[in-house]
Write a structure and sequence with these properties.
disordered N terminus, 35% helix, 12 strands, alpha/beta, D-Maltodextrin-Binding Protein, domain 2, 5-stranded mixed sheet, 10 helices
Length: 311
């Protein structure tokens, strides 16, 4: 992910909210990018280690994960946290409780696996940065596009990953590349990427460009290069692509997304050493095995959200 962005707040926003969103993103980025692993290969390796450490107990006895046996913040209710405002494609209409949007749907699917009806799920506002800060938790788990990182795992638990952010191609709407429907169709495109991210490796491995990609020092340079026509397209992770097209370069579009190694993993966040961690991980793994997690992802993070998958 670009160094000045974070995997949050990436919808098409009213202009009155863009400045607020940018401020929130920069604030979140200040803490998340220094300790997160959504860019470099080394960070990705560390993220994988954190995931392994925090999900090592996911083989808990199934009986310990029945609804009546769970240790909850509020008896009989599953309390889920996320930030406010809550934007698409992660939440729709700024109402996490409506079940619409990627993370809202994931949270309710986890709840269902744990035996909770939608009416038994209660949502609270938890600011992004405070969700993984030291201290007590007011929620059973939090979903807020939170990257799994070792630094955060010192203070909180993470479930098994429910999402790995793919790469995405962003172009100006007037560009000939705007109508590309395959990765091979982008081979002759002049592509820009940010140094130190996994995007360059992803471009070379999957797109096989005929022109050497242009590499820029930071995210501002990448966005500026796209605006000024120095490049025909930029490759970033999908959450960053949503933000660029909604708040930074509104005459740009996401041509598509594609899987690449080194993706940024998100997990449900829980209190450190929570008795619920293994059960939430079990629920996520069950959703993964059944194909429901992919269905939710395709519905809210795929073509319907303006990001078709390219092969």
């Amino acid at each position: 992910m670009l160094s000045m962005l974070t995997s949050r707040r990436l919808a098409v926003l009213p202009l009155s909210l863009v400045a607020l969103v940018a401020a929130l993103l920069l604030a979140a980025c200040g803490s998340s990018k220094s300790d997160s692993g959504s860019g470099s290969a080394a960070d990705t390796s560390a993220s994988a280690s954190a995931t392994s450490a925090t999900t090592a107990n996911a083989s808990a006895d199934a009986n310990a994960c029945t609804k009546d046996s769970l240790s909850l913040v509020n008896d009989g209710k599953l309390t889920v946290g996320t930030d406010q405002p809550a934007y698409p494609p992660y939440f729709e209409d700024n109402r996490p409780s409506n079940g619409r949007g990627f993370e809202s749907a994931v949270a309710f699917a986890i709840a269902r696996q744990l035996g909770f009806a939608p009416t038994d799920v209660s949502w609270i506002v938890e600011p992004f940065n405070s969700s993984y800060a030291p201290g007590p938790r007011r929620f059973d788990f939090d979903v807020n596009e939170i990257s799994i990182t070792p630094a955060r795992a010192r203070h909180v638990d993470f479930s098994a990953p429910y999402y790995t952010a793919p790469q995405a191609i962003v172009v100006l709407k007037r560009s000939p590349s705007a109508n590309a429907t395959s990765l091979s169709a982008l081979a002759s495109t002049q592509i820009g990427v940010q140094i130190g991210t996994t995007s360059l490796d992803a471009v070379n491995a999957r797109i096989h460009p005929s022109k050497t990609p242009k590499v820029f020092d930071d995210s501002n340079d990448v966005v500026r290069a796209l605006k000024q026509g120095q490049v025909d397209a930029v490759v970033v992770d999908l959450p960053t692509a949503f933000y660029i097209t909604s708040a930074q370069v509104t005459d740009a579009k996401i041509v598509g997304q594609f899987d690449a190694p080194g993706g940024d993993q998100w997990g449900a966040l829980l209190a450190h050493n929570s008795k619920l961690t293994s059960c939430v991980s079990r629920a996520v793994n069950a959703l993964q095995s059944s194909g429901e997690l992919k269905r939710i992802q395709d519905q809210w993070m795929g073509a319907a959200a303006g990001a078709p998958t390219l092969q």
